[in-house]
Design brief:
The complex is a heterotrimer.
Chain A: H1 5-22, E1 37-42, H2 56-65, E2 70-72, E3 78-80, E4 83-88, E5 94-99, H3 113-124, E6 169-173, E7 176-180, H4 188-191, E8 205-207, E9 210-211, E10 225-227, E11 236-241, E12 254-259, H5 263-272, E13 277-278, H6 283-293, E14 297-309, H7 320-328, H8 332-338, E15 344-346, H9 371-381, E16 386-392, H10 398-412, E17 415-421, H11 424-432, E18 439-444, H12 452-459, H13 473-484, H14 488-505, E19 508-520, E20 524-525, E21 541-542
Parallel strand pairs in A: 1-12, 1-13, 16-17, 16-18
Antiparallel strand pairs in A: 2-3, 4-5, 5-7, 6-7, 8-9, 10-11, 11-12, 13-19, 14-18, 14-19, 15-19, 20-21
Helix pairs in contact in A: 7-9, 12-13, 13-14
Chain B: H1 2-30, H2 34-39, H3 46-55, H4 62-74, H5 87-122, H6 127-141, H7 144-158, H8 172-202, H9 205-212, H10 217-247, H11 249-254, H12 260-269, H13 273-301
Helix pairs in contact in B: 1-13, 5-6, 5-8, 5-10, 6-8, 7-8, 8-10, 9-10, 10-12, 10-13, 12-13
Chain C: H1 2-10, H2 17-21, H3 25-34, H4 37-54, H5 91-127, H6 129-144, H7 147-159, H8 168-179, H9 181-195, H10 198-205, H11 210-246, H12 258-266, H13 274-301
Helix pairs in contact in C: 3-13, 4-5, 4-13, 5-6, 5-8, 5-9, 5-11, 5-13, 6-9, 7-8, 9-11, 10-11, 11-12, 11-13, 12-13
The chains are: A alpha+beta, B mainly alpha, C mainly alpha.
């Protein structure tokens, strides 16, 4: 027994050595030395298939690999990019898109109408489960492509849908195709600027309507850059310039999208010069950021809108004056200055300032901090003595929810507590079951730059994100009329009228509009960010 | 001896399935709505929900889902994460860097804990003993969420001695700082346990006997005391190895290391059952192997302990 | 092994330490303790912290929930001797009021973990065989369960129980149930080591029963590392109570605790370290008191030091 001692020790040591050897296989690949390339920090994208990308990281990478039909100028008006012309009939129902000729995918395939039609059909087909699928819902034939589960979440499997193609898509010739919508929509041109409307090459499909398994690992696009190798998950994505690109040629030869798990780590790398652009400076670093970065710390408008919703179905919030009083009890300026250190701005309207048709301060006195009037209103309306604000703890909302509660306590003399739910889904579940959740923390980032993208989903009766159950037929009607209006100017007028109804009803308390607060290294210059939290890859260049 | 190891290996198989079953059950219990978790705060259409539910068998009963998992496992298929990536690829990406990081951390921690623990155990009440107690308390009271960014700021940015982040293909040099931070998580307990164990053994009769036999002080401590004091310490180190692999969430985040802790955290947050179970399966194997080695070490350290 | 037994038999069995001193051990210990400065220092800290937990208004007249944003990160003034935190709350008042939940959760969860860990470790280590195999493999499985996952599931489940209005019970149970494994393994190792000592063999030979062997001989000699693990666990649990809040399964409502205060202040440590340092100091002092108390009591009860 004792004789075995050293032997066992040796075995143990050998095992540890093996473990160590097994893991020292990682090799470092430093491609940072290629001249005229830059690195931009992102988080791990959810997907790089355009129709499955709904978050800004994937969207950012795709913007370098693909060339959109339209893009947006500073006033959020669309201008043509890959499209030569986009025309529509009087009712805004039938849209004809003519492509600029001579464009190819990075694998050499010419870009034709079929590439768009096949890509959109793939995205719209329900069983493909593409996250951006609902963008196609305005096109004729979308409903027939959706599977309906006969027994909800029960054991029965859904019947495959009747159609596999959108009937509203029609090829005219190789460079022209037609889109027919179910009803007129003046903003369709803006909508087509979104990622899911990119074309896909033939090489993307294994067979008709079936994407090759690994397309998302190294997508082939019609943009100024192409993939260099594959997507290295949780690490980086490298893209390099396409030779002889026909469109706008970027000023850098390659981009490394460096993937970060945490914004704090990214910020450390930014300060140390290991990454060139950080698109979102974390709030904890903001206080020291101006000292660390100087004029390399920048701000630009973003479309994000934060608010709290009232569960209208609860009796205690049914009285409009209770809702108004709570809104007046909040000092928005104090919150954005102290908690957000000026990285967000106070919101006093129901749509973001980045969309055309926005009017400042549509909320009027209801969003002005006025603790005296708030208390009068609240007492007169008999508001509840005890309120809750529910939020999801995984989104960093605790600080401002607590601050808001403290303001409400101070202004109204009532009790207020923040209630943290583990995830947004948990919060939604409670709301769906109509449990008592109090005020609900919510936010919205626009999909396309139209007022309708705020008014429709958030406040119409059947809006996809109207979790609080606000319903006003007059409002719904105005939004719908705006959708059908022949010009965007007329549409904005109708939508503006709809917004005044919101200001009277106060179904939500507008709190803050977001900004992109970003920074860059000394290596790069001309860094701009758009409304979709993306760096403009055409303008960015190396500093002299 | 041989029979003991064989028996332990057989136990390991059962334990492995027990652990995966438990974790699968926990994930199932924790799941409220994985599809909503997948898309974040965006609304999701009924048709998408139906498609994704079917793709990931989310409608099936718990036992059925576990059966799919075991069936896949037996054919060498660890399954697919809800993000669409193969779990085997994710494991291959995450494990190497985590292994290196946690082994480095445990070597740091064990070295410091044993050396400092032995010294303060021998000289109880000395300045050195009180100093280690003080440092222990600081590490205890200073959460890793403060310690890690602070170390990064001071040594990575201000002084520039180490790179501020490491990444997946990190070199040993890049891992030094994160490993040191990670070691602080476990060094306090290991040090105190070593100290208590050494102090205990210094009073034992055999030390008096050895001293009486006029053995040199270094031989008394090096051979007799240390060997007899190490059993609880080695046990603790064994537990910590696994703990550091799964629990390095904050350190991996701060130093941008996409390892096991980060993947587990992501999987739990997005209710990604297959991902969590896949990683935990490996973690359990590590625990089992390390604990077997620890048990064998007992017999080395104290020959009176034997297994049959 | 047989030669070792023979060796053990040859050397005269040392008299059982507890047996020789049993008549006056407690009295002797108390005599020693009374003269120990460390003991009194530890006791004073613990009493002060307990008073804070029971009767916080004795220490401050300020309300920890009286927070005004415009006071954010302001320095010390008047009664707020530690200044104000990021919400403009009085840090001193929050620290005093935070003692209650921190101590309650910390001490109770450690006691729970201690009882489970002691029982499992002792049973596995002393009896060995199939019981050891069963218990040890169960510990392995428990170690494999990620803390976050266990906390989410347990926390959600326990929070749904009636009578859990402030979340203290759920948090205590969660931390206790998830925290006993390390202690159990350390206990098992010490027991395995202790039961093979010569005096245990000797005691067995003179006919001591298992209960007497365990509680008189094995356990007292196996307690030291285990106690240390538990005192450190106290600090860890007080701090990680806040982790549960971050998962949404922690203390409910506007409960204040040191853990929550510390974790809230971490983001602003470069701007305002005060709100982080003060609750940390209180946490460290409490753990220190328990470490010192453990050491003093340990020394007082050790007959070998006489």
């Amino acid at each position: 027994m004792r004789g075995n001692g050293p032997w066992k020790m040796a075995a143990g040591a050998a095992a540890i050595a093996l473990l160590a050897a097994g893991c020292s296989s990682g090799s470092s690949n430093d491609d940072q030395t290629v001249p005229n390339t830059i690195s931009i920090g992102i988080a791990e994208p959810e997907s790089l298939v355009p129709t499955n990308t709904t978050e800004s990281n994937g969207s950012q990478v795709l913007s370098s690999l693909f060339y959109p039909l339209v893009n947006f100028d500073e006033k959020s008006t669309p201008y043509l990019v890959a499209a030569e012309s986009i025309t529509h009939d009087k009712a805004n129902k039938v849209w004809t898109i003519k492509l600029r000729p001579g464009f190819t995918f990075s694998n050499g395939e010419p870009v034709t109408s079929d590439n768009y039609i096949n890509a959109w059909n793939y995205g719209a087909y329900g069983p493909n489960g593409q996250l951006a699928s609902f963008y196609f819902s305005k096109i004729e034939g979308y409903a027939a492509m959706q599977a309906v589960d006969p027994d909800g979440t029960g054991p029965k499997k859904a019947e495959p849908p009747k159609a596999t193609k959108l009937t509203g898509l029609k090829k005219i010739n190789d460079t022209t195709f037609q889109v027919t919508l179910t009803s007129g929509f003046a903003g369709w041109e803006s909508l087509m600027g979104y990622d899911c409307f990119y074309p896909l090459p033939k090489a993307a499909f294994a067979s008709e309507g079936v994407l090759t398994k690994d397309f998302g690992e190294a997508p082939i696009g019609n943009g100024p850059f192409k993939m260099k190798g594959k997507w290295q998950h949780d690490s980086q994505i490298q893209v390099e310039k396409v030779a002889d690109f026909k469109g706008t040629v970027p000023k850098v030869d390659g981009i490394t999208w460096k993937i970060y798990q945490d914004q704090g780590a990214e910020y450390a790398d930014l300060v140390a010069g290991n990454v060139d652009v950080q698109t979102k400076i974390p709030i904890e670093s903001l206080a020291s950021a101006s000292g660390d970065l100087g004029d390399r710390l920048q701000k630009s408008p973003s479309s994000s809108f934060s608010f709290v919703g009232f569960p209208i179905y609860e009796k205690e919030f049914a009285n409009r004056d209770v809702r108004r009083a709570l809104s007046m009890a909040i000092n928005r300026e104090d919150m954005t200055d102290q908690i957000f250190l000026g990285s967000e701005t106070p919101a006093k309207s129901f749509v973001s300032p980045v969309v055309e048709g926005y009017k400042p301060n549509t909320c009027g006195e209801n969003c002005e901090y006025n603790p005296i009037k708030a208390k009068q209103l609240y007492t007169a309306a008999g508001g509840p003595k005890d309120i809750k604000i529910s939020y999801n703890v995984d989104g960093g909302h605790k600080a401002w929810v607590d601050a808001m509660c403290n303001q409400i306590k101070g202004s109204l003399g009532i009790n207020c507590t923040g209630v943290g739910e583990p995830k947004f889904a948990d919060l939604l579940k409670k709301v769906e079951k109509k449990e008592s959740v109090g005020l609900i923390r919510l936010g919205w980032v626009m999909d396309y730059p139209l007022m309708e993208d705020y008014l429709g989903p958030l406040y119409t009766t059947d809006g996809s994100s109207n979790y609080y159950g606000y319903s006003n037929p007059a409002f719904d009607d105005l939004v719908r009329q705006g959708d059908d209006a022949p010009t965007t100017a007329q549409a904005e007028k109708l939508w503006g009228q709809a917004e005044t109804i919101l200001a009277q009803d106060m179904p939500v308390i507008p709190l803050r509009f977001g900004q992109n607060v970003f920074g860059h290294s000394e290596k790069v210059t001309n860094v701009n960010m758009d409304l979709f939290q993306k760096v403009d890859i055409y303008k960015i260049e190396l500093a002299e | 001896m041989f029979r003991f190891i064989v028996r332990r290996l057989l136990q390991m198989v059962l334990t492995f399935f027990g652990a995966t079953f438990l974790v699968y059950a926990l994930m199932f219990a924790a799941q409220s709505d994985p599809i909503q978790a997948l898309v974040g705060e965006r609304p999701i259409t009924d048709s998408q929900r139906a498609a994704l539910t079917e793709r990931y068998h989310l409608n099936d009963s718990f036992l059925q889902q576990y059966w799919y998992y075991v069936k896949g496992l037996l054919t060498g298929d660890l399954g697919t994460s809800l993000t669409g990536r193969r779990i085997s690829d994710m494991l291959a990406d995450a494990w190497p860097v985590t292994l290196r990081l946690s082994l480095m951390a445990i070597i740091f921690a064990a070295t410091i804990a044993i050396v400092a623990g032995v010294v303060s155990g021998i000289r109880r009440g000395s300045i050195f003993d009180n100093a280690t107690l003080f440092v222990t308390l600081i590490v205890l009271a200073m959460p890793i969420v403060v310690l890690a960014p602070l170390a990064q700021l001071i040594f990575g940015i201000k002084l520039g001695w180490f790179p501020p982040t490491a990444g997946r293909d990190a070199t040993l040099y890049q891992l030094l700082l994160p490993a040191a931070v990670l070691a602080s998580l476990v060094v306090a307990t290991e040090l105190r346990v070593t100290r208590a164990s050494v102090a205990e053994n210094m009073r034992a009769d055999y030390v008096r006997t050895a001293r009486a036999k006029a053995l040199t002080r270094s031989r008394v401590i090096g051979v007799h005391v240390l060997r007899n004091s190490l059993i609880p310490v080695v046990t603790l180190i064994g537990v910590d190895i696994g703990g550091l692999m799964s629990g390095a969430i904050v350190t991996e985040k701060v130093f941008n290391i996409p390892g096991v802790g980060f993947n587990l955290f992501r999987g739990i947050r997005t209710e990604d059952g297959p991902l969590v179970v896949g990683f935990v399966s490996f973690l359990v194997i590590v625990f089992l192997v390390v604990n077997l080695l620890v048990d064998l070490l007992y017999a080395v350290l104290d020959p009176r302990i034997r297994y049959e | 092994m047989s030669d070792m037994n023979a060796l053990a038999a040859e050397t005269p069995a040392p008299p059982s330490p507890a047996g020789r001193k049993s008549r006056s051990l407690a009295a002797d210990a108390w005599h020693d303790l009374r003269r120990s400065k460390i003991f009194w220092a530890a006791l004073v800290i613990i009493v002060v912290v307990l008073l804070m937990a029971i009767w916080p208004s004795l220490f401050t007249s300020a309300d920890p929930h009286d927070c005004v944003l415009s006071r954010r990160h302001r320095g010390a003034s008047g009664g707020a001797i530690f200044g104000y935190d990021y919400q403009g709350c009085d840090v001193y008042a929050k620290t005093v009021y935070g003692a209650r939940y921190s101590i309650l959760v910390g001490v109770c969860s450690v006691l729970l973990a201690g009882v489970i860990g002691l029982t499992v470790g002792l049973a596995a280590g002393y009896f060995g065989g199939w019981l050891d195999a069963l218990l040890s493999r169960f510990v392995d499985v428990m170690l494999g369960v990620p803390f976050l996952l266990g906390a989410i599931v347990l926390g959600k489940r326990l929070a749904a129980e009636p009578g859990n209005s402030n979340g203290v019970l759920a948090v205590t149970l969660t931390l206790g149930i998830l925290g006993w494994t390390t202690g159990a393994r350390v206990m098992r190792s010490s027991v395995i080591e202790a039961k093979n000592q010569d005096y245990v063999a000797a005691a067995r030979m003179v006919g001591a029963g298992p209960a007497r062997l365990i509680f008189r001989h094995v356990l007292p000699n196996a307690m030291a590392p285990f106690t240390v693990v538990l005192t450190i666990l106290l600090g860890i649990n007080i701090a990680s109570e806040a982790t549960l809040s971050f998962l949404g399964v922690g203390l409910k409502g506007d409960a204040v605790s040191w853990g929550i205060s510390i974790s809230e202040a971490t983001g602003y440590v470069r701007v305002a370290p005060g709100p982080l340092i003060w609750p940390s100091v209180f946490l460290a002092a409490t753990v220190l008191a328990f470490i010192m108390l453990g050491d003093a009591v340990r020394d007082a009860f050790d007959p070998k030091l006489r």
